[in-house]
Here is the input.
Amino acid sequence: MILQALYNYYRQKAADPESGIAPPGFEWKEIPFIIVIDMDGNFIALEDTRKGKTKRGETYLLPKSTGRSGSNSWMTSNLLWDHYGYVLGIPRGDDAKSNEMAKKQLLTFVQNVESLKEHLGKNDAVAAVALFYEKEEYKKVSSSDKWHECMKIIGCNMSFRIKDDAFLIPCSKSVRLYVESLDLNQSDEEGLGICLLTGLYGPIARIHGDTPINKDSKKIVSFQKNSGYDSYGKEQAYNAPISKIAEFAYTTALNGLLSRNSKNKVQIGDITIVFWAERQSELEQLFPSFFCFPKTDDSEVDARAVAALNDNACLSVTDGESERFCVLGLGPNAARISVRFWHESTDGEIAAAIRQHFEDIDIVRSTYDTGHYSVYWLLSAMATENKIDNIPSNMASQILRAIVTGEAYPLTMLHQTVLRIRAMRNVRRMQAGILKAYLNRSSRIHSFSEKEAISMSLDETNMRTGYLLGRLFAVLEKIQEQGVPGIHSTIRDHYYASASSTPSTVFPQLLKMKNYHLERIKVRGLRRKYENLLSEIMNRIQPDMPSGLVMEEQARFALGYYHQKSDFNKSLIIQ
Here is the structure.
């Protein structure tokens, strides 16, 4: 289903001449360093194409890389571009095995150049590359003053350019015509069968192309040979027969979505989300704003996106029908790309699910709270040191899936948030919103009788024990602050964790302490106000305080505490 959607996406883009997607036989590839030669094959310079703070190389439309794996991978090289092992015969490591491998790779690359030279006949540029190797000019590249920069990039890709020419040799017209003349459906192997994506009989791709993800490059479909993955006599990708042309289409579509400047990509921790609409949709443009860290030059972009979502401004219904919308979550794995989640629906349904998520997490906040909305902040509020890299990847992907599908949030989201609150001994707005969202959605989906609906602000009718104890704890802290102004640490700093988990061991002592604090409040009316509030809450709590609270009750404790504290600061509250 994923590959089928990607295949359809490629066909959709290929039909648009302005999409810039690579045609059959080509791919966009980053080339950080270029070897500049003259028409006699003499080495002139090593050119660094990297620019900007990130030092990313220029991207060129080059002949597509050829799939290679295993011990004989050295027998396959790309056309007029590859990493320095193939182009220069320089090994990645210092051991004898790496040296031997680099020699073989260089030999294959040179043979490939000679073969292309013979095929093209009179072509000065390709002939110059052949001379570059005949005259052993390639040995001079490592003496360039920029060589040490090139070596810093492990497996740095390189290509060739003739001095004073603006384009790379593999981008020249003659080379492009040669690549276009190659038939992707040409079978040079025994693998023929019915393609799972097209349903057509033809040559099957034995090895699928690589997909770059998180500074690495892996395959989304691959089978190890002779390692228990062979089935019914089928090896490698013959286990999941996909034709060469379909394999090219889906890998090109996925690589385009994951490319450096892609607007259809969101990176959260180690999870990469790609998304696309069947046809043009406003949701496609706003989608990243719901998830990413806002840009430093436009910190309000997430707030505007949520406002547009609430106004239905992000939906564009064509001919009375919603557009199909796909969301794919990917992550790195030891040997392959891991599919963390996949969801295909209409833009209307996905927009409704995201809107429901933001309604669920919405909660009262102070006027000093600038109001971050994106999912980045949600994950940050649950993470140690607020670094989302510290969030378990499985939990993050489950939360992201729940947001786009409208399903229940994972239980680990509740546990992680409660543990962070207990560790910090404080409840922040986003954390309170997470707990409210989890409890309300869980009740809405799983409860068959009484539906729990935690309100945005203080709910004086809420009779849940955890919620009442949280309110009581906030009142006791407020009494202490009023009785002992300027105190450096309050009962929250010392007792929040135990009060929220084992209330019977803490509250008796806190209630004794409150008498001393009340006596120090000089304003009689204020003192009476807190006494009445205490009585009101205490009368609703069972005489025998619970010895322990389960996680859901600890979440209600945090919400009661947050709501009561917010109610004390009504003048600073916005809904």
Notes: The chain has a mean pLDDT of 87. The first strand starts at residue 26 and ends at 31. Residues 465-572 form one domain.
